[in-house]
């Protein structure tokens, strides 16, 4: 296949990935109508782990050698961080109940990664400070949108906390991801989130089959499409594109969360809030622009990403 066609196929796969991840915020909002956050995540991540099994089995023998101690140790560590991030995010969705707003605040993890990286010896580029400034102005406009209810709410604080833990999770995955097979790491961490969520579900009233059935649509979308399908598409797309354009395409996740919330849930925001979303998206894209002095124009290092 010609190079231009290969990159077009890769870009299409990543655009579909961003669409699935963005609209997954809609399913997370809808899922809160019948399930608690722990219960929703328990069933969602269980479906996600099961949906990844065929991908892991198909890639058997094509990845790195299986090291049980490293794989399970790092998988559990990443799973615990992902559990905290996902729980904070889902409770943020519960208290905020706005898919677009949740998508953009969660997307701040891309801005946070280079700053948290300072604590592990990473250098932060000047453009990262610019991107953070643009995003903070956008966040201000989004949260203080001129209405009586404007301001930072509990849901926003929880979503921001989730974004911080998503960023920490990315930094840890970056360190350990080169030591073990990424698909093994993925299924173990997702299974860990499922098990911890099941363990916590009784704390919030348990779970009945009727509740699962009433929320089966959002659960299947968030669990299978957002995890199994989107993760597979992400791997497929990243293998056919350079890192910088791949990251920028996937940052459209936040944009699709707003579109999905408006079209499906009939959410609306003020013009000031939409301008804030635009600035946050601009900051996200700025944070992912390549440093040609370090990586060159054709870097093939895959970006760090988190699905909704």
Summarize the SSE layout with pairings.
Blueprint lengths: L2 H29 L5 H22 L9 H29 L2 H8 L2 H8 L9 H18 L10 H23 L5 H19 L8 H6 L1 H23 L4 H8 L2 H12 L6 H17 L4 H4 L13
Helix pairs in contact: 1-4, 1-10, 1-11, 1-12, 2-3, 2-8, 2-10, 3-4, 3-7, 3-8, 4-7, 4-12, 5-6, 5-7, 6-13
Q: Can you offer a commentary on this structure?
A:
This protein is mainly alpha-helical and 308 residues long. Helices cover 73% and strands 0% of the residues. Mean pLDDT is 83; it is low at 294-305.
Radius of gyration: 19 Å
Q: Give helix and strand order, one letter per element, not per position.
A: HHHHHHHHHHHHHH
Mean pLDDT: 83
Percent helix, as a range, is over 70%
How does the major sheet shape up? Answer: none
How much of the sequence lies in strands comes to under 5%
**Helix tally?**
14
Strand segment tally = 0
How many angstroms separate the termini?
32 Å
Shape: globular
Number of domains: 1
Assign the structural class, choosing from mainly alpha, mainly beta, alpha/beta, alpha+beta, or little secondary structure.
Answer: mainly alpha
Unreliable residue runs: 294-305
């Amino acid at each position: 296949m010609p190079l231009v066609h290969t990159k077009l196929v890769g870009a299409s796969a990543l655009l579909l990935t961003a669409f699935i991840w963005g609209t997954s915020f809609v399913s997370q909002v809808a899922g809160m109508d019948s399930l608690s956050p722990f219960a929703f995540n328990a069933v969602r991540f269980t479906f996600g782990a099961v949906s990844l099994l065929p991908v892991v089995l198909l890639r058997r023998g094509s990845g790195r050698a299986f090291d049980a101690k490293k794989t399970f140790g790092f998988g559990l560590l990443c799973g615990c961080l992902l559990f905290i991030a996902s729980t904070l995010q889902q409770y943020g969705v519960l208290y905020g109940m706005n898919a677009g707003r949740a998508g953009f605040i969660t997307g701040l993890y891309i801005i946070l990664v280079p700053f948290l990286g300072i604590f592990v010896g990473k250098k932060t580029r000047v453009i990262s400070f610019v991107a953070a400034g643009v995003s903070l102005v956008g966040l201000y406009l989004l949260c203080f949108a001129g209405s009586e209810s404007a301001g930072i709410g509990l849901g926003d604080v929880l979503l921001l906390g989730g974004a911080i833990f998503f960023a920490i999770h990315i930094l840890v995955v970056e360190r350990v991801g080169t030591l073990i097979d990424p698909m093994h790491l993925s299924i173990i961490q997702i299974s860990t989130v499922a098990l911890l969520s099941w363990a916590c579900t009784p704390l919030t009233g348990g779970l009945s089959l009727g509740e699962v059935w009433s929320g089966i649509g959002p659960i299947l979308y968030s669990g299978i499409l957002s995890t199994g399908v989107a993760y597979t598409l992400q791997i497929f797309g990243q293998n056919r594109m350079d890192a910088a354009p791949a990251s920028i395409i996937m940052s459209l996740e936040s944009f699709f969360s707003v579109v999905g919330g408006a079209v499906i849930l009939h959410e609306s925001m003020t013009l000031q809030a939409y301008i804030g979303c635009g600035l946050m998206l601009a900051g996200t894209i700025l944070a992912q622009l390549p440093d040609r002095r370090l990586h060159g124009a054709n870097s093939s290092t895959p970006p760090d990403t988190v699905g909704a």
